[in-house]
Structures are given as structure tokens and as C-alpha cells.
Amino acid sequence: MREIEIGEFADAWAAGAPVVDVREPWEYRNAHVPGAQLLPLGQLGDRVTEIPAGAVEYVICASGNRSVQGARILMTVGRPAVSVAGGTSGWAAAGRLLDTGDGGSCAHR
């Protein structure tokens, strides 16, 4: 399973790569990467069909622990996935854009 740093993830995100946030809904509402799809880790295996097939999924959490597990879950069902080291905390610390709420709006990339 591959894990990437925030800088490499930022490039992929800017290019439109799909992002799955595996945190809990309250965490997601507080702050998330714009455009990230919320699929809590505990539900990911049952909801994997909600993720469009094909592209590499970038899996993110708060700090990088749950995203490793989430990427492994996706890979076991044949989906290409990468874990984002540092998670949303690292994204925020790098001064990157964040959205709040349920994700209805998406900030400019």
C-alpha cells in the first residue's frame, strides 16, 4: 500500500484526483479537503460502490492512521488507493484550502 506526503497529494488534488475522507461526520463538518467524499472508515467496506471506479482514490483522515486502513480496504476490493500521510491536519498545517459543513460547496483549487 502506497502512502504519499501532503505536497504530492496537493498536486493530485489540484489535477482533480478523487478524495475519500474516512473520518467521522462531525470531523468532516469541522474541516475537510474541498471536494472530498465522506465515507467513514467503519462504513467504507459496505459503501465502496458509492465510489466511482477507475481512478486512484486518495484516502485521507485526520492524521494518516485511518487512511492507511481505508486504502487497504479499497485495495482488497480491487480499487487502486493511496493513503495521505499527515491527513487533514497536515493539509491544514500546510496552509491549504479547507471546506466546512457537509461539503455542499467546493473551494477553488
TrEMBL record:
Pfam families: Rhodanese (PF00581)
Species the sequence originates in: Rhodococcus opacus
Protein's name in the database: Rhodanese-like domain-containing protein
Source lineage: Bacteria, Bacillati, Actinomycetota, Actinomycetes, Mycobacteriales
Matching InterPro entries: GlpE_sulfurtransferase, Rhodanese-like_dom, Rhodanese-like_dom_sf, Thiosulphate_STrfase_CS
Stretches assigned to the Rhodanese domain: 15-100
Top-level taxonomic group: Bacteria
UniProt-recorded Gene Ontology molecular function terms: thiosulfate-cyanide sulfurtransferase activity
